[in-house]
């Protein structure tokens, strides 16, 4: 009888511990808008989610929703309103809201995604985190993709004349402006549609990072690639949590989450993009694709356009609450070069 009572006490104590653990455990939802097979899901978001669970010793878990709760351009607002606890997306899917970030999507911002992503995080921390635009969420990391290239279905793009009047698929207003200034005809369309767009003659080529040619299965349609040193353009991404959700977490869990977020998430993002780019380059070269660099004339044209659009953007700094936009740009570039030299 005494042994039975003792066993009962042990079971009760174990149950109390289990209940307490259950009360302390927090499950956060994550809205993701790319397929489960995409490397952003499998090799970045899911890895980060596991890192969070390990860092918090199981007290915080991330549950990826079976489908997104809104379109990709809505994902900042979905986090801000708490419709999902955590979201990710491209800043310039909302170009007017995130004009402060435009500088990182102009030409020549780098071809090393890890260095870029961390430099963007550091720039956000130093210049942007307290501006009104970024309130309502806890930013958990930033990412870039290591420089976008010009891809064509039938010819090499080497000179300004090669690009003139070519119909080029693009994904946003900054890319649109760049193409227009270069004399091309921008066609807005989602990147996953590039194969059918080229096949059907809707576009002649596309702006994409190298990895997308492989990951969007467009290699049979895009066989000519022009790699602009430092990138013809780029894209900027965020990982964000609803601010109210963040504030409800314990200080210990906040600290643990940030130990695998912020710079750490940005490194994870960038290193995976760099890996994907390297694999794609190897695969495309094995398929005898043609790779080109711009002629001096085309490089001069890109530099001319870049100087113009950056100056226009910087002149509007008051609208996005940055007193000296070019100081911010120089900080990003200096940090990028420092990080790239370490990688």
TrEMBL record:
Protein name stated in the entry: ABC transporter substrate-binding protein
InterPro entries with a match to the protein in the record: DctP_fam, TRAP_DctP_sf
Superkingdom to which the source organism belongs: Bacteria
GO biological process terms on file: transmembrane transport
Statement: the UniProt record of this protein carries the keyword Signal: yes
Signal sequence, start to end: 1-25
Keywords: Signal
Provenance organism: Neopusillimonas maritima
